[in-house]
Amino acid sequence: xxxxxxxxxxxxxxxxxxxxxxxxxxxxxxxxxxxxxxxxxxxxxxxxxxxxxxxxxxxxxxxxxxxxxxxxxxxxxxxxxxxxxxxxxxxxxxxxxxxxxxxxxxxxxxxxxxxxxxxxxxxxxxxxxxxxxxxxxxxxxxxxxxxxxxxxxxxxxxxxxxxxxxxxxxxxxxxxxxxxxxxxxxxxxxxxxxxxxxxxxxxxxxxxxxxxxxxxxxxxxxxxxxxxxxxxxxxxxxxxxxxxxxxxxxxxxxxxxxxxxxxxxxxxxxxxxxxxxxxxxxxxxxxxxxxxxxxxxxxxxxxxxxxxxxxxxxxxxxxxxxxxxxxxxxxxxxxxxxxxxxxxxxxxxxxxxxxxxxxxxxxxxxxxxxxxxxxxxxxxxxxxxxxxxxxxxxxxxxxxxxxxxxxxxxxxxxxxxxxxxxxxxxxxxxxxxxxxxxxxxxxxxxxxxxxxxxxxxxxxxxxxxxxxxxxxxxxxxxxxxxxxxxxxxxxxxxxxxxxxxxxxxxxxxxxxxxxxxxxxxxxxxxxxxxxxxxxxxxxxxxxxxxxxxxxxxxxxxxxxxxxxxxxxxxxxxxxxxxxxxxxxxxxxxxxxxxx
Length: 595
What we know:
Layout: H1 21-30, E1 35-37, E2 45-47, H2 53-62, E3 69-77, E4 92-100, E5 105-113, E6 119-121, H3 130-141, E7 144-146, H4 183-192, E8 212-216, E9 228-234, E10 237-244, H5 252-255, H6 265-269, H7 277-291, H8 297-325, H9 330-350, E11 359-360, E12 363-364, H10 372-395, H11 398-404, H12 412-417, H13 423-426, H14 434-437, H15 458-481, H16 500-503, H17 507-518, E13 526-534, E14 537-545, E15 553-557, H18 560-565, H19 567-571, H20 576-585, H21 590-594
Parallel strand pairs: 2-5, 6-7
Antiparallel strand pairs: 1-2, 3-4, 4-5, 8-9, 9-10, 11-12, 13-14, 14-15
Helix pairs in contact: 7-8, 8-9, 8-15, 8-20, 9-10, 10-15, 15-20
């Protein structure tokens, strides 16, 4: 063991739950020296020595019923954490969240690092999507991933000083001296923004010709947000390309460390600003895991209904803009008109349209209003006829089919290697939908199908999105027909203010109410994560509580961060015009990518 490696505590006892069988497989292969951490999830968290982490990760990638997807990778600054309860000593912890489709289970691997030696071997030789995750951990924490092909900042400019997710890094602008920008500083920053092909691993030409470099974005309508991709071109052919993100980064994971458990909810709406209440879901359910809160059945069904309304809204926008990017102007206007009908329902129920921030820890902000059924019925009667029109007029249009079939194509193996989830994965024939595979909030009680296509091209992705609208309508119909009675929020002191009549009579209840509203609830120490199928794929909030009113660490795994990373593997060798179709059909929102 290296001098700065950290010894593991004694191993824990055997856990008989099926998801924990992999722990025994690890012990059979590598011996007993593993520490299995107790968390709130139904899958194991295993601490591994740094010297053997690559060997362990490779074993998990190739074991029978393998962990084919690196679902997430990030780090935690442990130095100020008080309630660690016997965990291995660690200044910084790197974790890997791995997913196995065949086991329908996950595993989290953790590695403890000393702050004087923040180096760990890269995992890019095992999963290609480790590239961006490791760059992000380097950018935010200063972790060095030895052997990484291009370890440079990814969300912040190269001249940035410090690593923002370290605990000593200030969280508010008011904690700094006023920002000043003189001419010398401006020139310095502009020079660092200059594109130098060699810095990105690109060549300027070969023996016969020079390549042209084309800058697409960050302000370009086809980029679908503040996103840049630099293309290395040989005529119209893309020889290589470099996706460049970070223009929308606003430090939401850092913000989570300064917000109470309740007051962070509105920030989740804005991670994917098209997801609305669906974006609240993984966060509030992770907090509910921490607190041990059981959500009433009525609240669960209300949540499902709002989730599916926002899914329909997302897919209508996606289909309309995808057709528009392929040259069809008319459908997007009709689809936006239909989206207003959905927003009318959302506004009638929540009071807001795009960002209602309406889910609460333990339930929802309010009960359903009177006559909510009327608007929902109108949508359910209206939308199926419109979908038939869209399918006939737009999706069966020969020009659109010719522009998207066999374009920007990838297979299931590539999708899994790059961490693709949601419709992008289901377009390659894999029916992984968290609502079906790992039902939550009562999704197991709903009858719906998971649309699947097999070609993996742009047209297949559009078809999956389109067909999912019908399935969401089926779910909403079942919510309408079978809405349970009962409370819309849990009766739990950590989540819900007590009834007003009790606060007026009981001083202890009044104090609880005051502290919960003004200071925020104190969550038990521990770790919890929850995965849901948000509108663009699988998303997870991984929360670390240090028995405080605020999160010690909030890790947000979003689906589209990995989708953009896949661009070179799909587009290299294609035409520039195919890149536009690819960007149009991967359903990306840059706030979701950059956070």
